[in-house]
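Deviations from the work plan: none for this task. Representative record:
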Amino acid sequence: MFIKDLLFKPNLIAFYKEEDQYKLLNEKYKKNQVIFSETKEFKNKKEMTEYIDLVIEDNPQTYISTFIDSPNQGVVPSCNKQKYKELGIDIENIKFLCIKNKYSFYTTLYELVELKKTYAKLDFLYSAFALIDFTSTLRHNALYILTTKEFSYVLIYNNHIPVFSDIFPITEESGETSEEEGIEDISDIDIVEDFDETLDEDIESIDEEEEEEKENIENLNFEYKIMEHIKTALQEYYENGSDFVEKIFIFDTIGIENNITDMIMDELFIESSVDKFDILKTINKISRENV
Amino acid sequence: MYSFTQPNKKPLLKEDTKLWLIFICASVILYISFVIFLEIKTFLYNKDTDSFNKEIVSLKQKIIEMDSQKQFIYKQKTLYEDIMVKNSLMKDSIKNLLDLIPDPITLSSISFDKNKLIIYGITPTQDIYNMLMLPPLESIFTETKTYFYQMKNGWYKFKSENYLKEKE
């Protein structure tokens, strides 16, 4: 094994699908230092598969990892099957993964089979909650929310164990938002038409401002959604008479504004922080421990 | 940890690397075989050289032995020739001696030794012996002693001891 580690440096490929794009990170480590890193984006699966095949051809010691970006997963604060039954989870249709004999991640067998079918060369498949669990620092009365463009994954810790998990979709709601934005766009075009066509530069600058404004509105929308998700999760969590959450960590992958912390403080009186979260690097970090 | 799936088995080497390795291994094996072959040959040659060296030593020893044998044979030959010469001389001497013996004197026996001649015989008188027999004996031998015993009929039996002194 020592000789293998010395001579063969594995390539770690992490990827996930974000909307219609595939994001991929290919890294190679020597001891604890990155000696090669390449980030790629692909428009379709075929292109990504071709790239992966090329990497494998160059280095057979290539490990491919991704995470489950669907609602078909969760966390149970026990490794006992009885606990699953109590929570109404059909044990026969899921696969669960016990961590430190204290808590477990689960996903459906259907999800596993589908992912294996879609990505035949997949080596490691992680739960989205595993990414949070791997990165989490404070593990007592803390709420973590990982936001992606499609879902936000909420995980609440108590006494070093993730006791509550929930997944909220963002995409559907953002679809509605885009419709609203569409209406706004039409009105904006009307306004633009009022301007003299010769003042192109002014129009362009106005367009830019409008685009920024749109982005701000979109972001604001995201922030409200995240707020709603946090509130809903906390509501569900407190319904069982649990301890109060003392800190909220937002793992952001979509560009959430920092003012969300003020919003949380104003509405929920809980201290919070927004941290940029690199899903691909985190996946590779976990894979490095597995290789 | 954390993964729902087990990683697929990964070959350590690429296909073309495997092919290269096979060729390199084959070359190394051939090289090692050749080295082993040369080592064995060298070992055998060294062994042969040792055996030849031993043979040379043994042959040299044999040559020395044969030289000594040769010397011995030469000595024997010399001795043989010496003896032959002596015998011939002796034979001639005896023939001469017997030729010299006068008619009145009768010899009963003669014995030869290395440096000595003993003659037993009968003589009518001591004077005949001293006149006819003694002078040739004295001319041949360095020392001559004669003992007479008178017989009933007046004749004498004599014993003549003659010695040749070897030169030192």
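Chain B touches chain A at residues 1-5, 7-8, 10-14 (CB under 8 Å).
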